[in-house]
Amino acid sequence: MTQDSAAEPAGGMGQAPGNAAASPVPGGKVGAVVVVGGGVAGIQASLDIADSGFKVYMVEKTPSIGGVMAQLDKTFPTNDCAMCILAPKLVETGRHPDIEIIAGAEVEKVEGEAGNFRVTVRKRVASIDPRKCTACGRCSEVCPIETTSSFDEGLCERKAVYLPFPQAIPLSYTVDRKSCVGCGRCAAVCPANAVLFGPEETEVRTLEAGSIVLAPGFEKFDPTGLKEFGYGTYPNVITSIELERMLNASGPTKGHVLRPSDGRVPRKAAFIQCVGSRVGKQKERYCSAVCCMLSVKEALIAQEHTPGLRTTIFFMDLRAFGKDFDEYYKRAESEYGVRFVMWRPSHLSEDPATGNLRMVYETRDGKLAREDFDLVILAAGIRPPAEARRLAQVMGIELNSYGFCRTGLFGPTETTRKGVYVAGAFAVPQDVPDSVAQSSAAAAKATAGISESRGTLKVKLDRPAERDIGGEQPRIGVFVCRCGINIAGTVDVSAVVEAIRNEPDVAYAEENVYTCAQDSLRKIQDKIKEHRLNRVIVASCTPRTHAPLFQKTIQGAGLNAYLFDMANLREQCSWVHMREKDAATEKAKVLVRMAVAKARLLEPLHRQRIGINRSALVIGGGISGMTAALEMAAQGFPVTLVERETRLGGLGNRIHHTLEGEDLQGHLKNLEERLLADKRITVLTGAEIRSIDGFVGNFKTVVEIRGAGCRVPGAGTEGPGTPHPAPGTLTIEHGVIIVATGGREYVPDGYLYGKDPRVMTQLQFEEQYAAGTLPPYKTVVMVQCVGSRSPQRTYCSRVCCTETVKNALLVKTEHPDAQVFILYRDMRTYGFREERFREARDLGVNFIRYEDDEPPVLDEKGGKLVLTVRDPVLDRKVRIHPDLVTLAVATLPAAGTPELAQLLKVPLNRNGFFLEAHSKLRPLDFSTEGIFFCGLAHSPKFLEECIYQAQGAVARACTLLAQEALETEAAVSVVDEARCRACGRCEEGCDFKAPLVKVWEDGRLHARINPALCKGCGKCANRCCSGAITVKHFTGRQIEKMVEAALSDFCAGPANGGVRQDGG
Amino acid sequence: MSEKVIRRIIQDTHAFDCVECGKCTSVCPMTRHKKDFAPRLIVVKSMDSPSVEKLARERDLWACTTCGQCASMCPYKVDYTEFIRALRAEGAMLDVTPDCSQGGLLHSMMRVMAKGDLEQDRLGWAKPPLEVAEKGDIYHFTGCSRHMAQVFVGRQGIDIGSVPESAVRIMNAAGVVPAVSKSEVCCGHDLNWVGDEDNFARLVDRNVAAISATGARTVVFTCPEGLRTFSKDYPLVAEGELPFKAVHISELMVQWIKEGKLRFRETTGKVTYHDACRLGRHMGVYDPPREVLKAIPGLELAEMENIREKCLCCGVSGWISCDADTKLLQMDKLMEAKRTGADTMLTFCPKCQLHLHCAQADKVPVDRALIDIPVNDFTVFVANRLEEKG
After folding, report:
1. Closest Cα in chain A, distance from residue B109 (Å)
2. Residues in chain A closer than 8 A to B330 (CB atoms)
3. Looking at beta carbons, which residues of chain B come within 8 Å of A1055?
4. A366-399 pLDDT per residue, tens
């Protein structure tokens, strides 16, 4: 963040442009990565790379990072606020000492090769220097030019000098050069002298980097060209992202859905799917993969925001294929009453008098229907980024036929140039969790090639020695920020300073125009020394963004970081009480007095350093597990792979063809050979996990080896385990765990399965096809959703539609005369797989939709199979006499998953798959630190998705393994063991498995909290019924004193005899 | 100053008589599990270095459950529990506070009742067919069991919420229509035992006024703590002589059974009875509850190993100092009850029930099968076995 760089002249972020290039390691590889793009994919890749010991240059073409996710209101399927989950990542990226954000820049040239790239970047010199800008906003206030806001999709106006969005990183105003008339008013009023007035200049930088990650995101499809929908002509036809901005509380309509034509609240809105996706033989013939769920979510949120609004979604196939997506879709329909109409409207026409839109579409029975809506939302698809072609040229990579980055099935993050990797929507249209997982994978690949240079360019932070304040009376310094006019415009800051100066223990108080400005920070350090302050309070804005900056500042003056506290006079006072200035001033005094009351009781806290065993355990030896083990070894860390079966390969052993026509069995063989040849990898087959103890960095796992088939590499010298005479048990010590236990096929109980040899699952079909043992056939029926999307298993198994299409293509290619019927509910061939779906139709495969409540019926009559199904389109029963029936059965989590979950102490979701820490932004992490997962253990998914998840899990694990020691959180919960009742409620409630109740070495039964796992959230303290748990830095006593300070104006005298809290 | 205070307490409680025989420590239930805890030592310490400040800051002063086992065994009749209570009151004046369970919520409720004018839903249960009156010779002290039931509302198997109505059902069956008052407040037992004498005095005043207004001469208690507090502590605090005497419902029940006013249905099963410390050792009411149980046809009473004066404590008193050691004590109690083979353990004290339930509900250090015996309220149990009026 801007102010951060100001505070840390020694850090890597403040380096002057031009000479920031890392000095290359002589003869070696450069321990730095250039990440192109600052959306959620670029951010995830950068954080993973930087956290595992490499320097990151993040090149973003716009003035702020954040990308499209920053524009979103909520995210499916959890309805989390997008900005609320993204903003912490933005802040983390902005503050990371090893990430340099180069905003407003584009890559011009790439020279060299993997390990030693020279990347030339041209950067527009910002008209407002982000290092000086304090985001006070006066420039924007005086700017006379108004133009439309691109962040708000043109739905409202903004000034030519503007802040991209309130949470922008870097947090700096910027000048829209296209609209600016050069009046210079902004420069005249800027109190920080940050505005550089003059013609736009650019500067060129050359970056040395070992790898490059491309995450330039995507372009939103512009529906202006589609005359039938009248976008751009009819004001009440908008796009999904425009609606997204409207739904957002900070958006142009403050969260209200309003018709652009007249600002009225709509009553009836329609979503039209596949606008700019699945378009015949054009470039946009692929499926954009995200729009179905986006529309479902928007319909649901729009209805929540707008009482009386009814929404209808016009779709072709509702592609709710992700984890928990189908459940979300069903809920929208049943609980929210969102209407789903399976048909694509042909065109819209506007009633000029009302602005309403008449939609024409075909109904089930083949008649034309006309229906009026007062708002229509076009689910505009995902296109390749505008600069894709130029980027491809500069990077020397190939694009695929759709204009996206070309990747391979077995290398989903690899471009055609070595050392250049891709992540996010530039690889394939995909939503946030997939992008995030793939970005972690790109991080793994980008760092594997330069792992020998890990840590070489890491910024080393020096801290002056800490002053011991033991025995000192509190001497509190209070710095009250005017924040330009942000606070001072409402609150009488001088009056606040005067009031607080007289409080007991306040040794010094002053006001600053900007407390976060560089000169103010120096002043804080000076005053600490001058007045021997031992507690510091800054009364300004939110600690979320600014506390770390001030903490670093007081550390620079020898104070412990926890001798600091903030009072939020901006978000919690001036901004919300703009029209009540006197009351706001009084409230500000109370807020600061509360902070002082707490500050008296602040204590220095220290992080503990815990040693880490820098090796990994991978559970599961399928494609995901093998990939993870190999990638982990490529990162230079020893790894043990444990596979329950005697043979490696898992479900992959049964897949003989891929949609892309690549040789999976060959790939498997190659993986296995590399695995067994790698000295850093110990492979234990025919082995099962018996117990897992310990915690992040220090796990101890007991593996039982059943003997036959156990394989350990001959050398094994570098591995964490030594060759072990089987059978027996082996104890492995390791620092992280990657769970890759895979999945299995559901065994159907209908459709004559198991009773008639002509009925088989898709996998059995593949096996028999490959072995040539299929019975002769002329008519094949393929039934979809057998065991999926059912009341027992509510989820979509994601891969089966494509598997079926793949097998149908096999049949049709081999026997063009064979009749193939595919009985489906929605064809969910998302992304580029859509092409093969179209191909199957081209080849004459018959697709018959069936209704959820009318599944096909298979009987046998006189040795003949008879399949009956009602075709809802033709509304008649169809009878087929197949001689082969394949069932697209559900994918289930592997057998033994619940038992393993218990050993790992991690949760499962309602469908029995492992449950991630956060469905959007932490798809590969468990809440329990040090444990990661990937592949089918996560949810059903394709091969390439398993591969990038496995690689991504490695990147996530490497952020831990790259450290010499783990630093615990300092503000953690602690148990007063004498007071503990050992009830176990802390254990039950903790999301991070930090508390443990057992008989400890003191011989007593009580709880203890592992500081390595504790996040300091305080849930345990809240649950503790005996008052034995204290959250450091937020103790009961501190909060009590704050409450007393808050109420002291209202209650005469001290609050004696009031609530007697625990002493913590 | 401090020394003088302690000397007065020592004098008042006859602690001077202590011969350091250690009998108190050997019977103390707390000492069974809490290393270093010894009632004798607290007395000895107070004599050696008489500093309230120092004593009050020691955990031991607050860890004592004041169950009274020590005093019941003491050959010289040192009033050990009063010694502890008095020292706590001095400590409270120095702003020393104990470790309150439930974040001090229950104490806050009591203080709200002492100071505030919040209207309580104290009589929400008193609906027809139950018969109660505004005035009368016999007053029924509702007590706080319904408030407590609200605090622990999520807990399964707790029946203390229906204690007041059960008591009135019993009284009505015996032909008594008790007076009740919505101005009644907490009896003050817990605040008295954590040393908050000021608020205790406020509660005493409120209750005496509320009950006097009904004209009652007899106050009936189900709750052992209320009975003890009204009988032994109110006379010391209230101004003038109390216009009523306190009796326990079990004593009246025995009388009503003898008079043929109370009859019970045939009941099968086996119960065991827990002598709550306030009812037993503090008030000496041991036999009436047992006589009531014997009057229920078909019911079998299986006694535990330690009963009457020796009855094991439920572990916690006054919502303070609930820790892992008290839990071990609760395990002892529950295991003893389970060993009787009874279907349920009955007690009059709502807190004994809550504490033992809590111990069962949480993580336990012993095999669950050894402690899984239901703990139920005596009054509720008996009321449910009244002979139906034909």
Report:
1. 9
2. none
3. none
4. 788 899 999 999 999 999 999 999 999 999 999 9
CB contact under 8 A, A987 and B328: no
Among candidate residues B213, B236, B254, the one where a domain is terminated = B254
CB contact under 8 A, B99 and A985: no
End-to-end Cα spacing for chain B = 68
pLDDT tens sequence for chain B (390 residues): 577 888 888 888 888 888 888 888 888 888 888 878 887 888 888 887 778 888 888 888 888 999 999 888 888 888 989 999 998 998 888 888 888 888 889 999 999 999 878 888 899 999 999 999 999 999 999 999 889 988 888 888 899 999 999 999 999 999 999 999 999 999 999 999 999 999 999 999 999 999 999 999 999 999 999 999 999 999 999 988 999 999 999 999 999 999 999 999 999 999 999 999 999 999 999 999 999 999 999 999 999 999 999 999 999 999 998 888 889 999 999 999 999 999 999 999 999 999 999 999 888 888 999 999 999 999 999 999 999 865
Contact list, B99 vs chain A (CB under 8 Å): 979, 1026-1028, 1062-1063
Q: What is the ipTM of this complex?
A: 0.78
Q: Is the pLDDT of residue A223 over 50?
A: yes
Report CB contact under 8 Å: B365, A981: no
Give A-chain residues touching B321 at CB under 8 angstroms: 979
- The C-alpha atoms of residue A7 and residue A72 are separated, in whole angstroms, by 32
Q: Which domain holds residue B245?
A: 101-254
Does B315 map to a domain?
Answer: yes
| CB count in 10 Å sphere of residue B67 | 26
Task: Nearest by CB to A1061, from B103, B328, B363: name it.
Answer: B103
Instruction: Tell whether B309 is within 8 A of chain A (Cβ).
Output: no
Q: How far is CA A5 from CA A91, A171, A521, A693, B14, in A?
A: 13, 12, 12, 42, 72
Name the CATH superfamily housing domain A614-743+893-965: FAD/NAD(P)-binding domain (3.50.50.60)
A1027–B328 CB contact, under 8 Å: no
Asked if B365 reaches chain A (Cβ–Cβ under 8 Å), the answer is yes
Residues of B in contact with A1031 (CB under 8 A): none
Q: Give dist(CA A41, CA A38) in Å, integer.
A: 7
Do B351 and B211 belong to one domain?
no
Residue A905 DSSP symbol:
T
Alpha carbons A978 and A956: distance in angstroms, whole number:
38
**Among B100, B324, B325, beta carbon nearest to A1027:** B100
Q: Which fold has domain A220-383?
A: FAD/NAD(P)-binding domain (3.50.50)
From A731's Cα to the closest Cα of chain B, the distance in A is: 28
Domain-ending residue, one of B69, B93, B117: B93
The CATH number of A476-599, from 3.30.1330, 3.40.50, 3.30.110, 1.20.59, is 3.40.50
User: A747-889 is classed in which CATH architecture?
Assistant: 3-Layer(bba) Sandwich (3.50)
The answer to whether A614-743+893-965 and A747-889 have equal CATH topology is yes
Taking the C-alpha atoms of residue A841 and residue A836, their distance in angstroms, rounded to an integer, is 9
Please name the fold of domain A29-125+201-218+384-451: FAD/NAD(P)-binding domain (3.50.50)
Do B223 and B135 lie in a common domain? yes
DSSP code, position B68: -
Q: Classify residue B43: in a domain, yes or no.
A: yes
> Distance between CA A747 and CA A180 in Å, rounded?
66
Task: Please indicate, yes or no, whether residues B186 and B214 belong to a single structural domain of this protein.
Answer: yes
Residue B356's CATH number: 1.20.1050
Smallest Cα distance from B71 to chain A, Å: 26
Nearest of A567, A583, A573, A607 to residue A476 by alpha carbon: A567
Handedness of CA A785, A790, A796, A797 (dihedral sign): negative
Burial status of residue A519 (CB atoms within 10 A of its CB: 0-12, 13-18, 19 or more): exposed
